[in-house]
Amino acid sequence: MDFRSLQLFNHLATSLHFGITAEAMYVSPSTLSRVIQRLEDELGCTLFKRDNRKVALTHSGHKLLSFSKQALKDWQQLKVDLKEDNDALQGELSVFCSVTASQSHLPAMLRQFRQQHPGVDIRLITGDPALAIEKVKGKQCDLSIAIYTPDMPTDLHFTALDNVPLVLIAPREWRLTQLSQLDWTKHQVIMPETGPTRRTAYHWFAEHGIRPNVYAYVGGNEAIVSMVALECGVGFVPKVVLDHSSMANAVTQIPVEDIEPYSLGLCCLQDKQNEPLINAFMQLNVQARG
């Protein structure tokens, strides 16, 4: 017997309808039936009378209902008391970031946060960094590790964590080590489909009067490293992506001194930045950076 089983039993004892309880408690009817059967087996008695038309509590069922109501009430009160005693944050915080950021920046952040707030569960979502702002705007996560852009929506709050330089990479087999060795009419370029790397790279090309010969547009910076390693072309990627790539040994970094780095940071909705869990995560990392 556990508290979840008692919660399901309590609801069914009130609704007297397996379908209604299953839907309200987010379980399947078959799961609910198994829980009730397990309770009956453990207690050695029948809790519900069931036929094709109705469900009714037995005398034993009424006794268990009285017990379970008090037990669940005591359990909820105990959780409240413990929370007040510990004065600790509780709940779940969802964070979105790229696979690279989950390896480069997130571990230290989470380690410190978990030490100070062990009662908070972290739900990590990874994906294309170009989606970081969209995920926050769509309320699919509480926070994201995102890249600051000049056109960032005004309803978002951004706290900088790090400056990330972009580097130009070429296949190692091409033996290119200097920017002057590149022939932009001959050497093709791998570009990201969306995101700040694409915008910054195109800005650099425009400033230098270069019309890039684009071989392919790909999703994610990690894919650029892979395609460059396969000798499909050259491309700009964040240095942190290259540093954590298993394909780093298959490419060569070509020095480019005048390409703008971008600011990596934590992003959330403006109207949620003062919520306890989000604010705690934000403030912790601001203090660590300072």
Automatic annotation (TrEMBL):
Domain of life: Bacteria
UniProt keyword Ribonucleoprotein present: no
HTH lysR-type domain: residues covered: 1-58
Any GO molecular function: DNA-binding transcription factor activity
Protein name: HTH-type transcriptional activator IlvY
PROSITE patterns: HTH_LYSR (PS50931)
Keywords: DNA-binding, Transcription, Transcription regulation
Pfam families: HTH_1, LysR_substrate
Gene3D superfamilies linked to this entry: 3.40.190.290, Winged helix-like DNA-binding domain superfamily/Winged helix DNA-binding domain
Coiled coil: none
Keyword match Transcription regulation: yes
Family named by the database record: Belongs to the LysR transcriptional regulatory family.
Organism (species): Alteromonas portus
